[in-house]
Amino acid sequence: MNFREIVAFRAVIFTNSITRAAEVLNVTQPAVSMLISNLEESLGFKLFERRQGRIFPTPEALLLADEAEKTFESLSNLKRRADQIARRGVGSLRIASIYGPAMHLLPCVAAAFSRSHPEVNVSIVTRESKRIQEWMATQHYDLGIAEMPTEPNPLLHFEALPQRLVCVLPAGHPLADREILTPGILDGQPIVTMPVWHHSTVSLERAFAEAGARFNRAFEVDMFSVALELVAHGAGLALADPINLLAAQSDAIAVRPFEPVIHFDLALFFPAQRARSLVAEEFAHLLRKELASVPGL
């Protein structure tokens, strides 16, 4: 018994005619007759009787027809599911992200994705970079956004998302008139930094030391968004990344390039030991497009 034989059998049952079944299936009448004959031989019993030039299903054929219809319904469901998968229209997507992209980038991407993929369940969790890298290395999530790894890890597969940090000042600050800010210009100015171990802080302190400028740490925070709020309230200056600047109080701050260049590079992580799902690839595509529109990236 094969699928083509079942298709022919079902067509004959519904049309009560070999000729009409052949027309429905767009094959020749002898081809349908051969398929029915082969099916009868494999089953070991007759499926149709011929009387006065017409064919009639046997009781056994009617019993088989019920099962054939269930099979076709299952196959129809399977095809519909496959079509949904091909359209990225079904499934789930688990995303882990650090705070900045989760707050200021992922909501608009996720909303756009959901409008075109309403049957895909999307979950977003926010953690620090180290934890996200651990999760992605153990295949816990479909996508991850975190800081670039500092050491090679064969269990991590990622695309680099380079960012150049900029200097943020309170609006109206005297140094806001400068086109570019340097450690020499910022000598002694109160600065809001990330933790002392953070790459941006280490690089910033090194730049001040090499320029012979005084580094005045006024506040230490663990999120760029907090640093931006402190700057907006006149507490000092800070370096910040373009993504967190998306939600900054634009009328309360001024933004200027900083030299030497200090990077805060992020990465888009994928599971390294399994294939990317179609929905993950589609979401990543939308995310890349959104990133391309962020000023400074």
UniProtKB/TrEMBL annotation:
Keywords: DNA-binding, Transcription, Transcription regulation
Domain of life: Bacteria
Annotated protein name in UniProt: LysR family transcriptional regulator
Assigned protein family: Belongs to the LysR transcriptional regulatory family.
Gene3D superfamilies reported for this sequence: 3.40.190.290, Winged helix-like DNA-binding domain superfamily/Winged helix DNA-binding domain
Pfam families attached to this UniProt entry: HTH_1, LysR_substrate
Record organism: Borborobacter arsenicus
Keyword DNA-binding among record annotations: yes
InterPro entries named in the record: LysR_HTH_N, LysR_subst-bd, WH-like_DNA-bd_sf, WH_DNA-bd_sf
Residue ranges constituting the HTH lysR-type domain according to the UniProt record: 1-58
Gene Ontology BP annotations: positive regulation of gene expression
Molecular function as annotated in GO: DNA-binding transcription factor activity; sequence-specific DNA binding
DNA-binding keyword on record: yes
